[in-house]
Design goal:
alpha/beta, single chain, Glucose Oxidase, domain 1
C-alpha cells in the first residue's frame, strides 16, 4: 500500500509562520528595552545626571531671570480623552466655616479629583510600553496595580537639575505656529541646533518650541485634534545623544497625525520604554522664545505622589 504524504494545512502553516515571526519581533522589541545601566535599573536616562552636570548648568545663570515652564491648569485646560480637573474647597473645622479656638481662626482646604496627565506634565517610564512590556523588559503584570505602580513611580525620581536647551522650530521652519502634522526629525533638530549655535550633550533636557500652545485657549478643539511634533527618527536621534528628557509646547510631544497612520503614539514607547527618556508635555516655551533664550539652567522637583505614572509639573528655566 502506497504511503500517503501528510500535508500541512495552508492556514496552519501561515499561522505557524506568523507566530514564529511575531515571537521573533517580540524578542527583538524586548532586547531594545534592556537598560544599559543594568537589570535592576528603574531610572533610565536620569542616570546621565551628575553633580558635575549640575555645576556646569548652574554656570549658565548670568541674569537671574526665571521662566515658569508650566501652564495654568484648571477645568478648561484641554486634555486627552477622559482626563479632567475638579477642585472642591472645604472649610476646616466642621465644614460649616465656624471659627476655631479662642483666636477665632478660620481656614480652607482643597479636595482635588485630578488626572495626572493634564496640563504641563512629566510622563514616567511606566506610562507607555510595547505589548505590555515597559522599560528594562518589565512586564505590566510585575509592576502595574490599580493602587499605584510598584516600579517607575514618579516618587522615585530625583530632582532633575541640568542644562536645558530650547530649539525654536518656528524660527527654523519659518511658521508660527507650525501646522499640525509637521514632523521634527534628525535633520530639523540638527539644523536648528546649528542655527542657534548649540550642541546637545549627554544629560541635557531638550525643549521644542512649535508655537502650538498659542492656540490652546483660542481654539482648544484644534489644539487637541492634532499637533506638530517629534518624529520617530528625531526621537531616536535625541535618545542616542543621552538626553534625560524631551519636551515641547504641545500636549503629546509627537507629530499628529503621525508619519505612519497605522501607529498610535510611536514616539512615546520609543523614548520611554526603549530608551528611558522622559517626556515633558505642554511646556510653556513662549517666554524663552520671546527673549531668544536657548540655553539655561533647568530645574524640576516633581511632586512625589507614591506610585504615580505621571505628574502635573511646573519646571523652571533660569538664565
Amino acid at each position: 500500500m502506497k504511503q500517503q504524504t501528510r500535508r500541512t494545512p495552508p492556514l496552519y502553516t501561515l499561522w505557524l509562520t506568523c507566530s514564529v515571526c511575531a515571537l521573533s519581533l517580540i524578542g527583538a522589541a524586548h532586547a531594545e528595552m534592556k537598560s544599559p545601566y543594568g537589570p535592576d535599573d528603574t531610572l533610565g536616562a536620569i542616570n546621565n545626571l551628575s553633580p558635575e552636570k549640575v555645576i556646569q548648568a548652574a554656570r549658565l545663570v548670568t541674569e537671574g531671570k526665571t521662566y515658569a515652564l508650566g501652564i495654568e491648569t484648571g477645568v478648561d485646560t484641554p486634555a486627552y480623552g477622559p482626563r479632567q480637573y475638579q477642585m472642591t474647597i472645604v472649610p476646616l473645622s466642621d465644614g460649616s466655616g465656624t471659627t476655631m479656638g479662642s483666636n477665632q481662626a478660620t481656614a480652607n482646604d482643597d479636595l482635588m479629583v485630578l488626572w495626572m496627565g493634564i496640563g504641563s506634565q512629566i510622563d514616567g517610564l511606566g506610562h507607555m510600553g510595547v505589548n505590555h512590556v515597559y522599560y528594562n523588559n518589565t512586564h505590566a503584570r510585575d509592576f502595574v496595580s490599580t493602587s499605584g505602580l510598584t516600579k517607575f513611580g514618579i516618587h522615585t525620581l530625583p530632582p532633575i537639575v541640568t542644562r536645558g536647551i530650547m530649539l525654536d522650530m518656528t524660527k527654523q521652519l519659518g511658521k508660527d505656529p507650525l501646522p499640525e502634522g509637521t514632523v521634527i526629525n534628525r535633520a530639523e533638530i540638527q539644523a536648528a541646533a546649528k542655527a542657534q549655535n548649540l550642541q546637545i550633550n549627554k544629560g541635557d533636557v531638550v525643549l521644542l518650541h512649535t508655537g502650538w500652545l498659542n492656540i490652546a485657549d483660542s481654539d482648544p478643539d484644534r489644539f487637541m485634534a492634532g499637533e506638530p511634533g517629534l518624529g520617530l527618527d528625531g526621537a531616536q536621534y535625541l535618545a542616542s545623544l543621552g538626553v534625560v528628557a524631551v519636551g515641547s509646547d504641545t500636549w503629546a510631544l509627537e507629530a499628529l497625525p503621525g508619519e505612519n497612520p497605522e501607529e498610535l503614539f510611536p514616539v512615546h514607547p520609543e523614548l520611554l520604554a526603549k530608551n528611558g527618556v522622559y517626556i515633558l508635555e505642554n511646556m510653556d516655551t513662549r517666554g524663552l522664545a520671546a527673549d531668544d533664550v536657548h540655553e539655561f539652567l533647568f530645574v524640576l522637583g516633581q511632586p512625589r505622589f507614591v506610585g504615580a505614572v505621571q505628574a502635573v509639573i511646573n519646571p523652571v528655566a533660569i538664565r
